[in-house]
Amino acid sequence: MVDEEIADLAQALLALDEQRAVAVARALIDGGADPQAVLQRGLADTMLEVGRRWNAGELFLPEVVAAAEIFRLCNEIVEPALIAAGGRTLGHRVVMATVKGDLHDLGKNMVGAMMKTAGFEVHDLGKDVPAERIVEAVRELEPSIVGLSSLLTTTVPEQRAVLAALEEAGLRRSVKVMVGGAPVTEEWARQIGADGFAPNAPEAVRAALALVGDERLAGA
Amino acid sequence: MGRPEPAAPTEEPLHALLPSDPVDVLAAGELERIHWATLQVLARVGVEVRSERVLARLGAAGAVSDPGVGRVRFPPALVEAALAEPPRTLVLAARDPARDLRLDGRHGYLALDGCAAELVDRETGERRPSTAADLARITLVADALPQIGVLWQAVAARDRPVETQPLHELHAQLGSSTKHVQLMTAVRPEQARSAIEIARIVAGGDRELRERPILSAFQCSLSPLTYDGDALESAAVYASAGVPCGFVAMPIACATAPATPAAALVVSNAEVVAGVVALQLLNPGAPTFYGACGTVMDLRSGAAACGGPEDPYFQLASAQLARHYGLPSSIGTFATGAKGSDWQAGVEGGLSVMSSWLAGADLLCGAGLLHGARVHSTVEMLLDAELFDLACGLSDRMRADEEDLATQAILEVGPGGHFLAHPHTRRHMRRRWRSSLFGRETWEEWESSGRPGATDRARERVRQILAEHRPPALPETLDRRIREAIAAHGR
Amino acid sequence: MGAERAPRPLRGRLRIEPLAEGDLDRIHEASLRVLESAGLRISSRRILDALAESGAQVEAESQRVRFPRRMVEEAIARAPSRYALAARDPTWDVPIGAGEGYLSLDGCAAEIADLESGARRPPTTADLVAATRLADAVEEVAILWPCVAVTDVPPWAQAVRQTQVQLANSTKHLQAMSTFTARDARAVIEMARVVAGGSRPLRDRPIVSSFQCSISPLVYEGDAMEAALEFALAGVPCGFVAMALATATAPTTLAGHLVTVNAELLGGVAVLETLVPGAPTFIGPYQAFMDLGTGGIDLAWGPEEVLFKLAAAQLARRYALPMNILAFATGSKTQDWQAGAQHAISLMGVAAACEADLISATGTLYGSRVFALENVLLDAELFDLVRRLLDGWGTGEDDLALEVIEAVGPGGHFLGQAHTRTHMRELWMPRFFDRRPWEEWETAGRPGPRDAARDRVREILAEHEPDPLPEDAERELARIVESHEGETKGAAHGG
Question: What is the count of structural domains for chain B?
Answer without folding.
Answer: 2
